[in-house]
Structures are given as structure tokens and as C-alpha cells.
Amino acid sequence: ARAELMKMEKMEIVSQMAASISHEIRNPLTVVKGFIQLLQTGRLPRETEERYIRIALEELERAEAIIRDYLTFAKPAPKETEPINVSTQLQKVLQMITPMAHMHSIHVSSSLEDGIVIGNVQYFQQCFLNLLKNSIEAMPNGGTLHVAAENRGASVVITISDNGVGMTKEQVRRFGEPYFSTKEKGTGLGAMVAVKIIEQMGGTWTIESAVQKGTTLTITLPASRVGPPTAEQSAVG
Ligand code: ADP
Ligand code: MG
To answer: Do 196 and 202 meet the contact criterion of CB atoms below 8 Å apart?
Structure first.
């Protein structure tokens, strides 16, 4: 019964995510539709047309950014939850963001201990992609990004450190609040998605930050009590 209940809760979060993304995407699409309808009349001055086209493109970019914050790893039929090897999955996300880091002269280093947590692997990747992307975006003039995973037995502690622009107390307080963004083209949804995913896995997070010094995010996730699948189990499953 407890397992059933947990499963229900997980399902609810999946459908909640689907509901919020369609909600978030609808606004920019409505704007684009409106401007295209205006353009269709064909009676607008050239400059107005150009302005409307620019707005429509910006709104489409916003829709894309929202999808990236929610669904970068979405697959048609996601497994609900499974044991996740933290170091393997963090390595995958690090690999994804390395080109972006190098483009901004950011040095990436990591020290990853093995540890198993329970969650949806696509959400896990989405969570850390969003957090690492924020760190990179916090260092427009280069810097160092360090990611560590420490196996403490009952929990796995993941830290993400950057020496970027940092956050004020107020910004730290608002971290994870929907639509809170200090960026010109920010969605203010990436941190919210990350925080929801951490909480869904039964984890906690803290932020240590100083303006113009940098930010360290510490995420503590409960470790799986069962070990990784043995070769035998994998062969059967
Ligand atoms: P977005 O990245 O689209 O602005 P997020 O929800 O991902 O939205 O992040 C919200 C805000 O939190 C950012 O706009 C930024 O002000 C702040 N933030 C998040 N991570 C960091 C970081 N590592 N360093 C400095 N500020 C950060
Ligand atoms: Mg972001």
C-alpha cells in the first residue's frame, strides 16, 4: 500500500509537470499567433512589420527556453523511478555542458564518488542541467565550476560551486520561486524545476553565496538502501 501511494505521488508530479509546461508554453504561443494574424492583414508599415516579426521570434525563443528548462531529456515513455548512479549521471550532464563552459572560458572540474539514489533519471539530469547552466551563466567572464559528489552512507551530498556573480540574500531567498529571474532572457523556471525534482527525491538543498564571489549549492539526497543491481538481476530484468 505504501509503495502504491508513493507511485501515485510520483505519477501526480509527472502529470503536474506536463500541466505546467503546457500552461507555460501557451502564453508565448498566443502572442506569436496574435502578431502573425496582424502581419497577415498585409497593411502594416514596413517598420511595424519588422517589429512584430522580432517580437514573434523572441516569444518563440522564450517557448524554446521554457521547454529546455522542463523537458531536455523527456522521452515518450519515461520509467517512473529507478536506482540512479549519481556519478555516472552527473558525468553525463557535465559532458553536455562542457562545450558551453569552454565557450565562456570556464574551467570545469569534478570529484565524483559513487552513490545510488532513487528517482527518475530524466528528471535527475534535468535538475542538474538547470543548476549547472545557472552556474555557467553566472560566470560570463570565465571562472571555475566545480561539481562534487560525496557518498555519506545514508545520503549522497552533491555540491556545485562557481565563482560567478553570486547572489544577494534576497536572491537566495527567492531561488526556486517561479518567474524569479535576474536575466534579460531568463525564464525563472529552471531553479523551480530543479528544486521540485530535489524535493520529489526526498532531498534538501542549501545555498551559500556572496555577491561577486560566487555560489555554492549543496544538495543532499537520501541514498538508496538497496545497492545497484547485480549482474544477475540485470540479466533477468
Ligand atoms: P533563469 O536562469 O532563467 O534566470 P532560474 O530559475 O534558472 O532562471 O534561476 C533564477 C535566478 O536565480 C537567476 O536569474 C539568478 O538570478 C539566480 N541564480 C541561480 N543560480 C545562480 C548562480 N549559480 N549564481 C548566481 N545567481 C544564480
Ligand atoms: Mg536557469
So the answer is: no
pLDDT in tens, 98-151: 999 999 999 999 999 999 999 999 999 999 999 999 999 999 999 999 999 999
Helix (H) or strand (E) holding 144: strand 143-151
Q: Which ligand sits nearest to residue 175's alpha carbon?
A: 1
Nearest CA to ligand 1 atom 14: 181
Helical segments of the chain, H only: 2-40, 46-71, 86-103, 121-137, 169-174, 190-200, 231-236
- The per-residue DSSP string of 153-183 comes to SSEEEEEEEE-SS---HHHHHHTT-TT---S
Tell me what ipTM this predicted complex has: 0.99
Phi, psi of 119 (to 5 degrees): 180, -175
- 124 contacts 159 by C-beta, under 8 angstroms: no
Surrounding ion ligand 2 within 5 Å at CB are 134, 190
